[in-house]
Every structure is written in structure tokens, then in C-alpha cells.
Amino acid sequence: MQAIDVWSQITTERMAKSPWLEPLLRWTSQTGKSSVPTTASTLAAMDEGGISVSLLSAWHGPQGSLISNEEVSAQIDAAPHRFRGLATADLARPMEAVREIRKWVDKERFVGVRVVPWLWDLPPNDRRYYPVYATCVDLGVPFCTQIGHTGPLLRSECGRLIPYLEDVMLDFPELVVVGGHVGFPWIDELHSMTIKFPNFYVDTSAYAVHRLPAAFVEYMKGIGGSRVMFGTNWPMLSPARCLQKLEELGLDDERKEAFLSTNAKRVFGL
Fold this sequence. Notes:
By secondary structure, the protein is α/β, with parallel strands linked by helices.
């Protein structure tokens, strides 16, 4: 069964030098190793793990571009049948952010937008995000973000779902939101958001599936079955490593297929 990876990136040298990346490298036993993959090594990792399509993220933070939309576009060009893009934007320049999203997001090559709140130290209900949300609604694409605690040595509070992300979804009821990285330790809030908002989704990036919190696995078997998508956070984790013990989750065939591909196909129009 082929899978779709909804959170990956081909990191640049400038992103790899970010000091906040060090804890992630340590946790994944990559300290002292290069964390800059190539398109070829990314495709090889996808093949090894049974990944048909990866969504490659662009990254922008207060310090500037870490992976530009132009760079992601070039990565897609290298394997247009295997890669799709998630555009990013500079929150400090709201009109430029809107223009940038409209320039790149076409629902074919770029199928959504990603902004990581902890990188900005701005919760998602901050006014600077709101032009981005309005543009996503207008274009009919998901807004992808991070929920839960942060691996980098930066504040986790921005990843709390209630009230921050809840405020956003109340203000933008048409907005489709995909929260990456599971949402731990706020799994109860994850349940509440799923019940309340039919357009709220979550992905398992940054977790090998056998490391998922027990409460999250129960969520996948219940109300979250149609909401959870597979992600890796490549190159921090490889697809093969993430899926190595998939059978231990005890998902039935329908939920397994939804997790690996069906939910992502529906949400991102793949």
C-alpha cells in the first residue's frame, strides 16, 4: 500500500545551521551528520518507505527565508510526479505574504500553505496570520501548521490548540487546518477540536508510529479515523523508520488506508 507523506522538506544549508535544530538532530541521532538531503536521497528514502508522493514545505521565519518557495518549486521540477509543495509566507509583510501565496499556490504543484508558529513565537490567532488565512480560504487550500510541544528549544505555548487555533477556526469557519506533529501533550484538546470542527485535521509527522502516544492511537481508531494523515518530518525521520511497526497500531484496513493516503488525497486534492 503506497503512502503520502504530508510533512517533509528538503532542507537547505542555511536552515541546517539554525541553532534551534540541534535538539532535533540529537534526538534522531544525527548530531555531526549532514541534515541537508538532495532530491535524489529524498526519492530514495521515499521508495524505501513506500511513499508515492511527498509534500515539500517551504519555510520562512523572522530571520528570513530558510527554504524559499522558489527552491521548493525547483525541487518539484526534479520529480513532478512525486513531489508537491506547501508554500510559505513572511508574516511581517502581510500584503507581500498574500501576493506570494497567490503566486505559487495553484492546487496542482503547490497544494497548500505552511507556517510554523513556534518559529515566529506568535500564536496562530495573532492578527499577522489573518491575511494568510483569508487567502487560503479564497484559494480553497489547507493551512498547515504545527500543534503540540516543540522539539527545538523554543516555546511550546504557540502549539496549544485551545484557545489559539480554536479562535482561528471560529473566525474562519471555511478554513481547512492541518495540525502537524500530533498535538501532544494536549490530546484532550485534539478530541475537542475534532468534534467541534469538521475541517480540522492532524498529521503524525515527527513521530515513528510506534512512538505515538497511546491516547493518540485510540483517537486514530475512533473519531480521528477520518482526520489523521501520515507525515514524517523528513529528513529528521525517514519514511521507513516511521512506518516500520505500523501493524502494531492495530488499525483495521479502512483506517490504515485512510491514515496512509485516503485522507491526504481528499484534503489536498491529490
